Amino acid sequence: MDHAERRALNKGLGDGFSRAMDLALTPAVAGVLGYLFDRWLGIVPVLTLVTFVSAIVWLFVRIWREYDAEMEGHERGRLT
Predict the structure, then answer these.
(1) Which domain holds residue 23?
(2) Domain count, the chain
């Protein structure tokens, strides 16, 4: 395996790990913050669910846009 292939592999592994951490931690942190606000306001399940689901939707949209932009870049590179 040459240097360019190894660099591409490491970049792919790093990108995948970064996305995995985003998918795991962002909804968890949002849910905890929602729970803390729920306890403060006395409406326990409402903000926990809203922030958790909002974080998941936001992550889905963000990852979809990143993927779409990356694929367009690959297609432009292939067409030229």
Answers:
(1) 3-79
(2) 1
